[in-house]
Amino acid sequence: MKVLVAVKRVIDYNVKVRVKPDNTGVDLANVKMAMNPFCEIAVEEAVRLKEKGIASEIVVVSIGPKASQEQIRTALALGADRGIHVETDEEVQSLEAAKLLKGVVEKEEPKMVIMGKQSIDTDNNQTGQMLAALMGWGQGTFASEVAVDGEKVNVTREVDGGLMTVGLKLPAVVTTDLRLNEPRYASLPNIMKAKKKPLESVAPADLGVEVAPRLSTLKVEAPKQREAGVKVEDVAELVDKLKNEAKVI
Amino acid sequence: MSILVIAEHDNSSLDQATLNVVAAAKAAGSDIDVLVAGENCGAVGEEAAKIDGVNKVLVADNAAYGHFLAENVSALVAEVGKDYGHIFASAGTNGKDTMPRVAALLDVAQVSDIIRVESEDTFVRPIYAGNAIATVKSADSTKVITVRTTSFDPVAAEGGSASVENIDSAHDAGVSEFVSEDKAESDRPDLGSADIVISGGRGMQNGENFKILEQVADLLGAAVGASRAAVDAGFVPNDMQVGQTGKIVAPQLYIAVGISGAIQHLAGMGDSKVIVAINKDEEAPIFQVADYGLVADLFEAVPELESKLKEVV
Fold first, then answer.
1. Same topology for domains B3-166 and B196-312, yes or no?
2. Considering CB atoms only, which of B69, B97, B270 is closest to A226?
3. Interatomic CA distance for residues B50 and B48, integer angstroms
4. B188 belongs to an annotated ligand binding site
5. How far is B14 from chain A (nearest CA, A)?
6. Fewer Cβ within 10 Å of end Cβ, chain A: N or C?
7. CA-to-CA distance for B154 and B160, rounded, in angstroms?
8. A interface mutation test: which of B308, B310, B311, B313 has the most A CBs within 10 A?
């Protein structure tokens, strides 16, 4: 079966985020960018499905500016077969992203779409569910295990209080949680090979979607910083402070 | 325009998080209805009718909603909620699963995980793991919102006398089914609402060692949490994870044991009133946010903490 994986270019996981002095957003100039960590897990899961002989082809799609092609190439180096870049310099919010992905899904007709549960920039946790709704498909969100069985997939989900397994008819959307797998690193030969894999570029208009944000960001501020407190000498002093100073025990 | 709040529950009793969601809804408007979707959930409807400030409770009792499958519940919420000005739900895993589907079905945006209501169309939410705080305005006629419950003080569970109406509509999308669940049973308070939380990190070395935290927790009536590192290493189950992608907690007292303090962890506990850090690495970033830091070997400090606490609590 064909598997579609959606990946997003975001600020690198390890970069210290700085709010712009004019409070219009986060400073992304000259900041290291990378594939969203949850999307790496999605790519890895698709590659494992291919290694098991369940997936026949992996198509990776990313929405964003020209530079997003770097993340598509990374996915190709990890084992995806070809890429689709939906190129736009506009801010794409979750609902528009889901509509764009729907356009790609209708063209590619995959049996499964795997994507990260959230991106570490906007922390929305929406796009996979929205895509599933627009397609009328089932969804296995926050997945920690994916077991394909013929025309069905069982997805074990990380939920409040523990784990829950749902059975979904294919096609379906799966969104990844942290413990689904540990992504591999791309080898140098595979990075070289990835440069020759096909990568098609389309515009939102080609997919019949107008990118028009519904939410406007009025301002972005730095959070209130906590002040470092005091170091205590020993456990006795700690208990004394908690009881008599902070009065929390 | 009135507001629809989606009740969080387990078919037998109302989850207290619903009270925090109603509080957030009250900040956006006054005419509040509550939807209880589930199976054999009549008692929850009765409980919801007593919530202070609720106008009407709608109960959709159907096998299709028994396990809160997003495919089914979202169709119901979209049908019931389409004429409301706002639909509010908790940003727990049910809300996260279901509400984006509702938003897509209504062709509106969703505002996730809000921590403050500025006005009926403007909301404040953390982005970048809480390293930035965005104020967002929605232009949609129905605003679909999920709420970070720790950021809103709950309304009273008693005092209201809402009417209760049953809704017959049954939405079974037929694309998903419940297979099984594995939920941890614990006598300790819920991590998300406990007054005191004690969490362990990679420094705990293994799952067995979490026992020493549990002993302290039981003395204090605390919940036990963990860092992502401890969950990834398999020491403890996923539902104990505190952080950007796990549980968000804001207790009166948070005790971080053997946790270095990655920004993703701080995102989940940075709003705690008092933070204690116990770590043998004095350079650990957790000390930069801790009110009280103790540089010590946790395997000596925690048992000593237990015995000292026995003297005072």
1. yes
2. B270
3. 5
4. no
5. 15
6. N
7. 14
8. B308
Contact list in A for residue B113 (CB cut-off 8 A) is: 123, 125
How many separate domains does chain A show? 1
CATH code, B196-312: 3.40.50.1220
Residue that is written with structure tokens 């579609």 in the block: A4
3-state DSSP call for residue A233?
A: coil
Show pLDDT as tens, one digit a residue, over chain B (313 residues): 799 999 999 999 999 999 999 999 999 999 999 999 999 999 999 999 999 999 999 999 999 999 999 999 999 999 999 999 999 999 999 999 999 999 999 999 999 999 999 999 999 999 999 999 999 999 999 999 999 999 999 999 999 999 999 999 999 999 999 999 998 778 899 898 899 999 999 999 999 999 999 999 999 999 999 999 999 999 999 999 999 888 999 999 999 999 999 999 999 999 999 999 999 999 999 999 999 999 999 999 999 999 999 998 8
| Rounded-to-integer distance, Cα B11 and Cα B152, Å | 24
Here the ipTM equals 0.95
Query: Which residues of chain B are within 8 Å of residue A142 when distances are taken between CB atoms?
Result: 93, 96-97
Contact criterion met (CB < 8 Å) for B196 and A226: no
Indicate which CATH number applies to the domain containing A135. Answer: 3.40.50.620
- Do the beta carbons of residue A61 and residue A6 sit within 8 Å? yes
Q: Domain span at residue A155?
A: 2-245
Q: Domain segments of chain B: what residues?
A: 3-166, 196-312
For B145, nearest residue in chain A (alpha carbons): A124
Cβ within 8 Å, pair B179-A234: no
CATH numeric code, B3-166: 3.40.50.620
Residue B260 annotated as part of some ligand binding site: yes
**CA distance linking residue A35 with residue A40, whole number of Å:** 7
B138 touches chain A (CB under 8 A): yes
Residue A112 touches partner B, C-beta closer than 8 Å: no
Task: Decide: residue B130, CB within 10 A, 0-12 exposed, 13-18 middle, 19+ buried.
Answer: buried
Instruction: Please indicate whether, in this complex, the C-beta atoms of B294 and A249 are within 8 angstroms of each other.
Output: no
Please list every residue in chain A whose beta carbon sits closer than 8 Å to the beta carbon of residue B107: 95
